[in-house]
Amino acid sequence: MVQGVALRPTVYCDGREVIRMQSGRVFEMDVPPGEHSCYLGDKKSGAVVKAEAGKDYYFRVFIQPGVLKGYFRLNMMMPEQGRFDIQKLKPSERPDTKGIYP
Description:
single chain, mainly beta, four-stranded antiparallel sheet, two-stranded parallel ribbon
């Protein structure tokens, strides 16, 4: 059994709940150009991104082992690594994430 499979951390962008992430899944969302803050629900990890039109940005949610329990991390990835990694993943069950920004 893979540890953390049943856990679903919440991903936020600019204070808006985007998705409850699932293990082995990927989702895509469009954001307007400008600065955006992406983080997990506990706000212990994330990134501020200056999004540019036509560019792709990749993040990975992973479980970090702890003493009594694990916690999740949100890390920004190099585009080359992100493009490679998403080929192995299934789309998220929540298809409406592309429309989170008007």
